[in-house]
Amino acid sequence: MNEQTAVKAPPSHICDPVSLEIIRGAIAAAQSEMEALIERTAISAFIREKKDFYTALFDGHGTMAVGSMVPIFGDMTRPVLEKFPAETMQPGDVYWYNDCYGSYGAISHSNDQVLLAPVFRDGRICAFVMSWAHFADIGGLRPGSISPDATDIFQEGVMIPVTKMIEAGEVNQAVLDIFHRNSRFPDQSIGDMRALMASVDLGTKRVGEILDRFGPDMMADALAQLLDRTRRLVRTKLAETFDYGTHKFTDAIDSDGHGNGPFRMRFALTREKGTDGDDHFIFDARESDDQAPGPINYLMNKGVPGMALGLFYLGGDPSQVCNAGGPNALDEVLFREGSFLQPKYPAPLGLRGLTAMRMISAMCGLLNTGGGEAPAANSAYVVNIMRGEFRNKAGELEPYLLADGIGVGYGARATADGIDAVYFVAQENYPVEFLEAGYPVTMRGYGVVPDSGGAGKHRGGCGIVREYEILAETTMCAIRIDSVQNPPWGIDGGRSGRHGVAIVNPGTPDEVVLNPLSDGNMLKKGDILRIETGGGGGHGHPYDRPAERVLEDVLDGFVTEAAALELYGVVIKNDELDVTATKSHRADRPKVGRFYRQEYVDALV
């Protein structure tokens, strides 16, 4: 059984309502403790500081029972159970993979390493625990293993098919040695793998304690009830959002870094009556564009659309857990092989984060088209990868790798402004002190980009500006910025968020604007690299934003006086609101439309 299988609780429950809530809290606590261990013991900055990791617990059939709020991953246990059937497993086993194509997109780029372990009681598998994390370098074309220059997945590092890393407690050190040998920074790789192994070990112990307290049968029933609870909630919300018929939405990625694009993802959700008399919900992405030569392809697992919908409908409800109930709520998920959402092996996948972020916005657009109140579009987080050599305290040249993921603005909501300066879910921006202490850079500036959030009754979130002074002797820079030609859309009168930009030596005769999706940009000691990230789309007519709120935005540096007048119709002089002039200016109310991307349109299809 996998995440696409609808799991229904038995009609007569073993687990009573009180025990159910205790188990719900216990499994969520176990999952959180596993993540805390990774954060505290990992070596590389991308895991320890950026928090690019994830843990989950599964029932005895391999269906996800609790996971993190990350709507881009799929059925994690299926690849393992296909190669190593449950009846062949034994206590102390740990399985490992990072093979994107071999896992049907459960892992969607090769840097992410997955460890999975069964939990036994009374001679049977009662659960599985999983940890994964993004490893800084696993070989490939360039340090960091992710490059816009990649043209196939072999250039993105070593691939690990499903492998038994630990058999009955005995570690297969040889396979680990091979893996670490392929990293340019093996000490980081070794430390991060130990953190993952420790997290899985902790998870098996914590789940074992829950099993010892409640017994395998009660826990199995509790997990089935939780899955059914989420599934029923999502299906009820889908019926409230979507009328019968087909609802469509289209979004786009600018480029693949090789001069191709844009690449459009075309989503459709159909609600129809099945022959059984029940509603059937079908998600269809088959009309999306063909796969790209460059690495923006996203091998989208069939569990992803339902997971994204499920997380939207759960909305942070503390009585719910993130589980496979969302994927199970959809009756059918359709992709077209050879599209950039279902590319053929060995298409490169390293920059799939751009496409995954645009996918989340497209799902919001689909919800809005159906009648839901989802946020406007977000920008995709920006990644700046710098690698080269610097002189250490001994005067010797030493290699360095800085992968700095930078936050952006998220789309405004129907009831609130978008979030400013956020990376992705639980991940964080590197602090200035950490960057300067650990890397050959000085941060000359770090703040919010004014006017980057889309104007609206509720303003889109603003992006970030970072300005680095290069202290290394040599640096090659890769930049990942999207949504330049296709900025994040606003809704119900809200305007688009502004796009990002990367500039070397801004304001000088040597100023160079970098290609927003490029690698091989050579920087020298003393150069200044300025990166501005994009903002989220606005929600609602800008003239409906209270003038006092616009004044606050101007005083706080989120909106300039010029934009306050041009976009919001608010007149501010010398940091004070001119009420009479504002009332006069707002009397001439511009006409707006349903969506805004460069212009107002009724639909994005």
From TrEMBL:
Q: Which InterPro entries match?
A: Hydantoinase_B, Oxoprolinase-like
Q: What is its EC number?
A: 3.5.2.14
* Keyword S-adenosyl-L-methionine in annotation: no
Q: Name one GO cellular component term.
A: cytosol
Q: Which UniProt keywords apply?
A: Hydrolase
- Per UniProt, residues of the Hydantoinase B/oxoprolinase domain are 16-542
Give any single GO term for biological process: glutathione metabolic process
- Enzyme class name: hydrolase
The GO terms describing molecular function are: 5-oxoprolinase (ATP-hydrolyzing) activity; N-methylhydantoinase (ATP-hydrolyzing) activity
Q: Name one Pfam family in it.
A: Hydantoinase_B
Does the keyword Secreted feature in the UniProt annotation?
no
UniProt cross-references to PANTHER family, sorted A to Z: 5-OXOPROLINASE RELATED (PTHR11365), HYPOTHETICAL 5-OXOPROLINASE (EUROFUNG)-RELATED (PTHR11365:SF23)
Name listed for the protein in its UniProt record: N-methylhydantoinase B
Taxon lineage:
Bacteria, Pseudomonadati, Pseudomonadota, Alphaproteobacteria, Rhodobacterales
